[in-house]
Amino acid sequence: MRILHKLSDLAANAKFRLKLIVSYCLLVTFIILILGFAYYRISAGNMLRNMQESLGNIVLNNNQLLDEKLRDIQSKSEVLPIDNELYEVIANVDKHDNESQLKADRRITSILFQYFGGDADIYSSFILTPEYTYGNAARMYVPPEGFFQSDLFRASLMNQGDLVWMPTYSFADTFGEREMSGFPYEYEKLMSGVKELNLTYIDEQGVFHSLPANQQRPVLMLSFRTDYVEKLFADYVHKSKLRHLTYGVVDVHGSVVIASDAKLTGTRQAPAWLAEAFEMRQGSFQHVVDGRERLIAFHQMESTGWMSYIEIPVADALADLDKLRSYSILFLAAMLLVSVLLAYLLSIYITKPIIRIKKAIKMMELGNFRVRIPEHGRDELGELIRMFNQMNGQIHALIEENYASRLREKESELMALNLQLNPHFLYNTLTTLYWIAVENNQQEMSRIMLNLAEMLQTSTRDKNETWPLATDLDWLNKYIYIMSSRFENMIETRIEVDEALLAIEVPKLFLQPFVENAIIHGLAETESGGVIVIKGRNEPDGLRFSVEDNGCGITKERIDKLKSGEIRSTGMANVEKRIKLLYGPQYGLEIQSSREEGTTIVIRLGRQPDPNAATRVS
């Protein structure tokens, strides 16, 4: 657990670039290992199947050659019992006369040569009787007494006239030649075919003759040396160059006919898997022999019933895969190097924007909020940089707005302080002037003084940003009265506002600048018939107020300059900024005007001030 904890801490504290390189290399290594393992398994399976097929074909071809040879011998041996000359020789030989037996030997040798002399693979051919061994004894001699006491004779009797093949045996041990044991000689180990000859004869008159019942039937003995069978397998061993290949031929009783290990030939040390192979008759399988996995291909001969096999270690069959393993390791190393390079380049591509953001954040910590990161691409990192720049710009705007708000607060406080120097003195002075005008019978002047005093008292008494619409309209009526006195009642003013709106809070004096502009700029040159209409109504998306006049109007070019800020209108700009601060950026002013057709200022307000509006505006 401690090791895992340390590894976890190490991974957590490692740099992102190192994490990216390591993870990319691990991913590539994992993929290569999985693909390599799968390719190795598939290749190994294909190689084993090919090797099984190859070995099976070799065993099958060898058996077909042997079967063809032995069937040919068997067919010839089946004709031998009805050979008239052979019958006459065996029937007429005097077993007590040596000269008669020698003559019979020459004739029988000639007969055997006619049948089997053309086959160089047959090492020897004899016809044996208890008294004499007939045949060419130039290569070897089989004693009659030893033969008729051997398993070969007993096998011939059991098969009742059929040719039976005897697996490899020791000549000395089988025929009782003890003095030959321990000495190497050419026919030390043989395999033979034996057949009891039930000789018959049909004479010219068509009379059927056979040997007397009390006469011992002669036995045909055909012998082969083991190298006749071994050479078929030895040729394949030499061509294949497989170092640990073994082969053999075994009969159904486990006697070893031939084996790649010469010590096993003629013994009963059959492979442990032999019974399973005889059940299958032909095929291949894998079997553990002496602790090693081995591939075995086998086929049962039709003529003898013997089982031929070839056996190789599975590791040898897959020896060529060692090269594949080496190539895979080299490929893995090359891919790792390429992966490290690609991962390094990729890490630079990914981490470079992150490093830029990190440096920008440090500059922000130092108070530089004007920093901007170059934007490249539209991927996630590019989007992150754009969002960072937007955030930084918003923070900068918020800071400036906060700073400006504080300045305005300070200015408002100073203005309030200045106004509060002696508001009662100003109010009392205006009141004194009012009574002076009354005493001098100046009614109009006295009323103007009274309205101005009340306007001053209302403005200085309420310190809030907003007040009820009724208060604002009352203040506006006093202002309109004063301005109408100035222009000698040439302007008619109408206020058409829903009574339901009078209690709603609105920005202080938000209508006054537009009424003032209508009087001074729109209707200044009008001698009579000037009309200003102030309207207010409730709409689904908020409150709509308008100030309409029938004055000279404003050109489109001037409206565009007012909107762009080229022409400064302090009152109009102040009102619009206050509205957006109080209600949000979707509210504000709209100018509708045409030359000589009058002007309409539309003012849109929310139903109540939004405390978060200033933040959204910035």
TrEMBL record:
Database matches in InterPro entries: Bact_2-comp_sensor_kinase, HAMP_dom, HATPase_C_sf, HATPase_dom, Sig_transdc_His_kin_internal
Location of the protein in the cell: Cell membrane
This protein's GO CC annotations: plasma membrane
Gene3D superfamilies reported in the protein's UniProt record: HAMP domain in histidine kinase (1.10.8.500), Histidine kinase-like ATPase, C-terminal domain (3.30.565.10), PAS domain (3.30.450.20)
Membrane-spanning residues: 21-40, 327-350
SMART domains: HAMP, HATPase_c
Name used for this protein in its record: Two-component system sensor histidine kinase YesM
Organism expressing this protein natively: Paenibacillus methanolicus
